[in-house]
Amino acid sequence: MPSLGDVGQLAVNGVMAGTILAVPAIGLTAIYAVLRFPNFALASHATIGAFAGYVANARLGLTLVPSVLIAFFVAGVVGVATDEAVLKRFRPAGYITTAIASIALTIALENIVRFSFGNELRGYDLPIQRDWRLGVIRIGPQQVQNLAIAAVTMVALFAFLAFTRTGKAMRAVADNPMLASIKGINADAIGRIVSFLGMGLAGLGGMLIGLDTTIDPLTGFRSILSVFAAAVVGGLGSIPGAVVGALTVGVGEELCLLFLSPDYRSAVGFVAILLVLTLRPRGILGQRAY
Amino acid sequence: MENYLLAMAVSAGIYGLMALGVNVIWGFAGMVNLGLVGFFAVGAYVSALLTIKGGWPIAAGMAAATFVTALVGVGVSLITVRLRGDYLAIVTLGFAETIRIVASNAIGLTNGTDGLSAIPGPYRGALSPEVFNLLYFGIVAVIVVAAYGITERLRTSPFGRVLRAIRDDEQVAAVAGKHVMLFKVKAFAIGSAALGLAGALYAHYTSYIAPDIFVPLLTLYIKLALLVGGLGNNRGAIVGAFAVVFLLESTRFVIPLVPGISPVQGAAIREFLVAALLLVMLRYRPAGLLPERLSQLPVSGPAGRYQPTA
Amino acid sequence: MLDRTREPRRRFLKTAGALALTGMVPTIVRGEEAPLQLGVLTPLTGAGGFDGPRMAKAMQAVIDEVNAAGGLLKRKVVLVIEDDQTNPEAAVRAARKLMDVTKVPAIMGTWASAVTSAVAPLCWESRTFLTTVSGADSITKLPHQGYLIRTQPNNYLQAGKHAEFIAAMGVKRCFMMSIQAPFAEPTQTRATEVLKQKGSQMVGALIYDKDKTTYRSEVDEALRTNPDLIYLNGYAPDVTILLRDLYRAGYPGARFAQSYAVTTKVLESLPNEVTEGVITVQPSADVSSPAYELARKRLGIAEPDSYETQATDWASLVSLAIAKANVATGTGIRDNVRKICQGNGTKVYSAIEGLKLLAQGKEINYEGASGPCDFTDIGDIIDCKFRYNKVVAGKFVLIKVA
After folding, report:
1. What are the strands of the beta sheet with C106-110, ordered from one edge?
2. A90/B79 touch (CB, cutoff 8 Å), yes or no
3. Which of A12, A18, B23, B200 could pair covalently with A247 via S-S, beta carbons 3.0-4.6 A apart?
């Protein structure tokens, strides 16, 4: 019989995992909110960010924070570039065609990474430490670090959306594009900014995931299901929803270990999506972007 | 060489059958089915298990597979028919992955990740591999032609017209007195039947199936085949399927011409080429970049987003 | 809707394309000068993508040596490498190309059990020889008529030997963590059996999802049973994460893994504290056998792992069998492979050594880098020793060969 301590530990693990998951989930949902399609290329941009951070850290010798910033920036730039060059041209044909094009795009980008770096597993050049014990609960310093980075990122993003003019313009386009264009907001420019931000967050998330583990060309691909589940559960298009959804999925995937064999974990993500969509399709926080 | 081309043609034919089925669900009725590989798996496993463990004749197994998959299609569509387009897509994707996970873990039934070997093929033992290939190509060709005939008939029939009306604007169709849900479920059942039959054909051709075969990548290929050929266009579905297989296979022969690269780099280039060329074909397809349905045009704005499901 | 003139044009393009491909395939006009092509089908992308390239490299190293010594049957040997994408559907198409277009007598390198099971029927039907590492018990039980050999010892043999070693270490409580794969359950059953026989105990086991990015909860579950040793039965990507999470949890006990899960590259990507004391195991020849040492030199790696040594042996076995058969056909390889690796001939430890003796008309017995390479009728390894290494300060140190 699992003790309260066991359940508590699972919940803590879930919250930690969920917070990291929230970062790319916000990216996915933000792009969906403004550009109106699920951009599956998120997977390869997470990988690109992770590798950009790796080059900065292991090859150029930068410390954690500058490497994370580089991961964000490189992934963001690639995100804008690929959207302009590839995905934008499919948008007139509808969101399904664009979504499918984004899948083909993610395969192409993943293989560029594979061509450049090979399939070997690579680790960041950062120290590893033993966990701290707080009573019955075990928490790792790296987890706390990742949590801090994720939290700071999210706070920065929310501040951007709430207080800056561009941020408010983005919310306007997400909520009501026709009204936004009447008010003179340039939808194209906003689209580019959200691609940069969204994919930058994906890259940052990819690196955060890689910090705990190792990275290889499949890093982003392995997480895309959980990221997607997080966004959907929280309400596709709602940015706070992505955070709530990520925490829910993160905790859910851990708590299900109480009664399911661990190899059924990925089924949890899908069942979660299925349940949410049948019972409450709008997701937990609905569809308003902010 | 001929054997190889025949085998690739069988693959393309099976993909084409899948594309025709998905065309009914997606092209005609406008329902996005991202889980088509799950129905493909159901058909494959049903026919394989009936013929291996139940000793059924192959034709009976295939027929049962078609029927059972159609039933599964009815079930899935009943659950999801009220969902809006993008949510339907996600749920169907979940369905496919769930099928794969169940197949991996239900070891008693499906042999788990070990897969099912020695699935019988028509006259497999008695014929040389080349003749067997030829025979199977004949079988697949006949089935694909028949399926094409059926779907073409559907397209031009009143049933097909209603489906397209539902695709373009569900509310109008409902107002016109059509029982929307019934039509959608029927379309899903027909499409699933085709997918199930394709699965059975695959199982008896290769004599081995395992959960690892039924991955979303296959769904992607079929979707791309349809989009490249022109959604709703049956001839385009078959041509698109052949185009996808052609891309996958012809890139194999191009890679050795690139000098000074490692095997991994060669493999990466090939996958990149397949994805990139598919994007190019998608962009410049003969049918043009037509909007999928009228209500998807960007100007529909908030009204489109908050549209209540039927 | 589709323009009627475009449709026949597309069909024409496809036919023209196929004809062009036929033209691109090298047609063999004069026998002696055409290269002898051997097939490699291995995962270069997909879940197995971190293992395929190493195996391809190992095979290429052997073939380079063979070519430098004059080739096979007076022809230069060329490896034609195809990616199986760790996917049986893609693998089957790739195998068909190798068999029907390139017409190779042998295909070497399949890794995933599902891929091997899918490709094997094609191989025996077209009389192509297949060599593999795949561990599923069902593979050698297929009716392959001798066209398949597996250089990886089967699960029963491995699990038993590993358990003996673990018990001999003095471990009383062993916990096994496996990925969901065909080898998981047979390994667990046999290991549990043998541990009990030797006075030890398997205190628990769990199967984990190989695609997760953290295994804290799974590690917690294992640690709850208080094991002295945890057997990590997975592959490099997941075992890497497990090692990290075990370190973070402060687990003081022993960790045991296959050599392909903790390779030299894995050691490089992890801090030394995390891997200190990890024990790895791989099938091996006798301590005294020079084959492993030769593989080390040939590859330029301090400790070639299980897959690299097996790949070395495939290329060597196939080359020697072709030389003995004096033809490059799958049936020739099948009929001659055991003649060059079993029996009373002179022991040889590399392909070039064996080729030289064969040219002099002598009988040989190839002893490989992954073991003595003696196969049962159904293609399993009869017996082999195992090489146990320990990781000390980020490098491998030999414990023993047993």
Report:
1. C77-83, C36-42, C106-110, C129-132, C148-150
2. no
3. A18
